[in-house]
Structure formats: C-alpha cells, structure tokens
Amino acid sequence: MTKQYTVAILGATGAVGTRMIEQLEQSTIPVGEIHLLASKRSVGKKLKFNGQEVAVEEAVPDSFNGVDLVLASAGGDISARLLPEAVKRGAVCVDNTSHFRMNDNVPLVVPEVNVDALENHHGIIADPNCSTIQMVVALEPIRKQFGLKQVIVSTYQAAGGAGQSAINELYREAQEKLDGKPMQAEILPVKGDKKHYPLAFNLLPQIDVFEEADYTHEEWKMIRETKKIMLGDKFAKDIKVTATCVRVPVPIGHGETVYFETAQEPTPAEIKQVLATAPGVVVQDDPSQQLYPQPVTAEGKRDTFVGRIRADVENPGSYHMWVVADNLLKGAAWNAVQIAQELVKRDLVRVPEGSAELFN
Amino acid sequence: MTKQYTVAILGATGAVGTRMIEQLEQSTIPVGEIHLLASKRSVGKKLKFNGQEVAVEEAVPDSFNGVDLVLASAGGDISARLLPEAVKRGAVCVDNTSHFRMNDNVPLVVPEVNVDALENHHGIIADPNCSTIQMVVALEPIRKQFGLKQVIVSTYQAAGGAGQSAINELYREAQEKLDGKPMQAEILPVKGDKKHYPLAFNLLPQIDVFEEADYTHEEWKMIRETKKIMLGDKFAKDIKVTATCVRVPVPIGHGETVYFETAQEPTPAEIKQVLATAPGVVVQDDPSQQLYPQPVTAEGKRDTFVGRIRADVENPGSYHMWVVADNLLKGAAWNAVQIAQELVKRDLVRVPEGSAELFN
C-alpha cells in the first residue's frame, strides 16, 4: 500500500492557504489526514478538503504531533515561532513566508529551477517570493542555454500579494471611486507602515518597507532570492540583478518587464524556442494575433506566461520579455504544493537528525 | 497695446482639447479671438472660454483664415490634412498628434529640454508623445550634469492616453466586474486593431500597433522621439534608448520606471539635488515618509514628479527613478500651450516664407 501522508496547512483560511488546499487536492500527494490550522479567531470555521468538511483548529506546537508535511502561509512571525516546533516533532515544512528564505540551512526552491536543492533539506524548505518565482521560471531556461549576465526587472504586482484583505480593499476603493466618494485606504501599500494610499485607479511604487539603499524589502527579495535560487549563494555575483517593484490595481496576477543580458547573442526566435519547451512556461507571443500574457488570462493557472520577447535593437545580447503568472498559485500555493510533491516523489518527507537544533 | 492672438483649437471637444482650452485660459498668451474646431458631429456644442460660451465649428481649411496660432489634437489623419492648410493661411500650428513628429522640417519640443529648436520652425511644431515628454523632462537635467549613455524604460500608462472614450471604457468595465458581469472591451488596447481586451483590473502590454522588431509604435515613439528631443537627429546614437510600454487600469497619470546609465558616477543624492532645481520637475522622494509620485496625486498638475531615485548597487553609474505626470497636461495639453507661450514670448508666431511648400 502507498504511504499516506498526514498534512497540515498553517494559515488555512487565507488567500494562499485556501489555494494550498485546492492545489493539494489536485496534486499527486496521497493525503491520509489533513489538519487545517489557523489563528484562534478562525477556530470553528469549516473548510472542505476532497469534499469532506474539515474544522479549522488553532495552530499550537502540538498541532504538529504526527504530521508528516506542513504547508505554511500564516505570516513570517508565525512561521518563525511554529515551524521549529513542527520540525522538532518530525514534520517537514514548506514555508511560504519570507522568514527562513535566506537562512543557509534552508533550501529556497522553485522546482523548475533548483529541485535538487531539496536533497539536503533540514526540515524546512522555503517557497520564494511570488514575483521572484515567475521571473526565475522564465529566466532559468535562458540562463542554461545562453548564459545570463544581468537582469533589470520592473514589476506590476497585484493586490493579492498582500492577501485577500488587500484584494477586498481594491474592490471597495474602486466602487467608492465609481460612486464619486473618496477612497478609504487602510491596508496598502504596507499594512504595518505609517501611511496608506488607495490602489484603485492608482499606482503604488512601494511593496513592503523601505530598507538599505532606498530599496524596498520586496526589491531586495527579488535581488537576493533570484541569486540564491539560480546560482546558490556561492555564485551570487555571477548574475547582476536589480529591481523596481510597483503595486498595480489588479486583484490577481503579477506582470513583469524583464530586461536581461545573456552571455551569448541568440536571436529572439532562439529564445522563444528554448522557452517553448521549458517546464512550467507557456509562450504567448504573437504580435500579429495580439497575443501576449495578461493577468486576466493567467488567473487560476499554474503556468508562467511569457511574451513580448524581443531584442534591444541597440544592445546586442540584451532582450526584453513580459512575464505574467497567478501570484497566488505559481507565486505561492502551487509552488509550495509542487515542492511537497517532489519531496514525496523523492522520498524526502523525513527530518534528518540534528535538524531541530539548527532552528533553535 | 499688446498684440492679441487669434487662436484655434482643433479637436476642441476631446480629452486633450478641453484641457488645451483650460491651459490656454491659464496661460500668459493674450488671446483675442478663439475658434473651437471639431468634426461635423460636434457642431452646435458649446464650450466655455474665459467664462464666455463659444460654439464649436466644423474644422475645414478656411477655418484657419485669420488665425495666428493653432493647437491641434484631433488625430493624426486630421492634422495631416488640415495643418498644411493652416500653414498656407499663415497660422503657426502646435500639433499634439504623432503625424509630423519625425519630420525633419518640424521641431519636436519639450520647452524644459530643447526650447531653442522653436527658433527654426516652419509653421508646424510637434508636441511629443505623452510618455516621452515626462521622461525627457526628468532625464535632461541628469544628461546635462552627468552625461547620459543609456535608458531602459518600462511604462505604466493610463487609459487617458487613448482618449476620453478609453477612460469611460475603463470605468464601465470596472463597474461590470464589480457587478459580477463580464467586461465588454470595445476600444483598448488599440481602437483600430483586431482584438479588444478589458483593461479594468488587468494589464495590457500593447500600446498602439506592432511594428518592426516586435516593438509597438508607442515603444518606437519613445525611442525615436527621446533621441530627437534630447540630441537632435545628428547625435541620435549617443544615447541608447529602449522601452516596454504597458497600459494599466489608471484613468489619468502615466508612471515610468526609468533605469539609466550616466557617463559620470554621481551619488543618488547628487542626482536628487540636480532634479530638485530642474525646471518642471518636482522631486517626491522620501522613503522615511513613504513619499513618492502617484497618479492620483499628479492628476491635474503641470509638473513631472520624480521619486524612488537610487543606484543600481551592482552597476556603478546606473540608477533607477520613478516618474509620474498627468499625461493629458504635461503629456499633451500643457506642453502644447507651453510651446505656444514660448512662441509668443519669442515673437515667433509667424510662418516663414516657403514653409507651406514643405508640407505639400
């Protein structure tokens, strides 16, 4: 008989958590038992898994007793507190928060790019930032084939990256504006920051808080995570990465203009050919048919969509592309479930000895 | 007594035309008579100029008899047909359409950048593309002070760039989506193109039709116009420019992430200092106060707002900035009126002999 896995979803009621449930249902993982964990507030709520009602439980350290696999998306502070407890109890955790991503003991994995990094996990595997995932899925086949020297990305990020409440705020503000009322911003650009600005019919060039060199945390994530995923830390200097992250009034689906310089000088047609057979990538690029990726057509899909592929006509070896993906699926829930699926396939759902100490 | 000018506005009922009227009212130009010209359809409509009702007239060649100055924004084909007629009748034309922009006999002017190009006009002066204007206003002070080698721009362009009907479509689609109905796209991305896609809660990486090398016409405009304005045609190769243009669900106010490489290596603080005293520029850049340009705060203003100024930490001499302006004011109506104001100030409101033949 196939082994059945006991799976816990931490943050099960959120925008990513609910999609983790749905992606897990559609995955190849044989799920025996499921535990839906959330904060005290959500206890009593019932969600469905494979047609069965499951009551939401409060997430506490002992929630992880007997659990094989944890999919976490309840916030960085909660992962920081609870995932070491899960590891201590023998559960392997795939964490969608940013808390452990740059930890040397934690592989940061996009299965299409660096699935082998899973082999050396210590109980916690990090799911990268949404805007980073879709970019590296599109860049890795190019790097492998033609070499990659530099990346300059501008993002067009959906409200959903800040959770369901940010999507609700976008819709509410849009209705306020259409009704001729003032828009009331309470969450964006950053829930915990001092000021809030409307996103509806507007653009906010701030995602997460400001840090070193006047880059936002989101921009640093794209720089650092891209290097860790594509190169590992040792070769981080081999590709230059820089970013500007902008929130746009779209509920779901991040867009990115990715400008990149390769080591070789392929034609745009050669780049399209490589992307056309790349895992997880769908090329949508036919100007004669006005075919290009859009958030409304990417929503609900697991793939990363790439279009507008063309050369910088004055810089040989430099190119543009336009990348769109569902930030809540490939950018979060699906990538996490995909990691879990690989862990199962490779029989890696076990915590190596000594792991718990690494996260004390 | 000061000379009074007879001014005609061609396309007076459109999104740009109505703003030309308003900007002209607020200008220093002594307007004697005003003629509001539009298509047959609009004849009978009444608009106000300085509190007086003015009837809209049909635009025909003889509309320009006795006219000193024409401000045109009725579409490229209409400018192509009527402006040579206006020049023949001795009227100096400031044309907001793209028709004459790359014509060697037509100066393409952003007053903050190349106002002296007006001196050699031949009756037609072109008002550049909206997304180009705000970018060169921000780049020119940097070029003058530190030298400029390369520009890579991604735009976040408002619906208003495609006219009032595109703004109306955006609002209608937004209401449809909020009501749970399918969004009906009829205009965007390009009125005359085969397919139409919703812009509300979406992103459209196509502005204008596709052309050479899979760039859109809008992208080529940004490349070619930037060079003509900043360098003149002779030095066009001295700055490399490349662009990706994306339409975003914002009614008014274009955003741009502008990545640029300078000849020298100033600090971001030095760049900010230069921009702080540059004409037409307002620096909004204080991460500690979450201060940065936004379309909702730029709307209705004549200035170009610049923020998020910072260095590419891995490429000395390369920088990011985020530029926002009201695309219907600085990007169109105000820049045109500003040109007209300069023509008046320099006593250049006359058509040099032999000009009419140039546009036959």
Radius of gyration of chain A: 20 Å
Which structural class fits the helix and strand makeup of chain A? alpha/beta
User: Spans of chain A with pLDDT under 50 lasting ≥5 residues?
Assistant: none
Listing every helix as H and every strand as E from the N terminus to the C terminus, the arrangement of chain A reads EHEEEEHEHEHEHHEEHEHEEHH
Total tally of structural domains of chain A: 2
Largest sheet entry of chain A: 7 strands, mixed
What is the CATH class designation of the largest domain in chain A? Answer: Alpha Beta
> Which percent bin holds the helix content of chain A?
25-40%
User: What oligomeric state is this?
Assistant: homodimer
Order of adjacent strands in the largest pleated sheet of chain A:
3-4-2-1-5-6-7
Number of strands of chain A: 13
Give the N-terminus to C-terminus distance of chain A in angstroms: 36 Å
| Overall 3D form of chain A | globular
- Specify the number of helices of chain A: 10
The CATH architecture term of the largest domain in chain A is 2-Layer Sandwich
Instruction: Briefly note the CATH topology name of the largest domain in chain A.
Output: Dihydrodipicolinate Reductase, domain 2
> Which band does the percent of strand residues of chain A land in?
15-25%
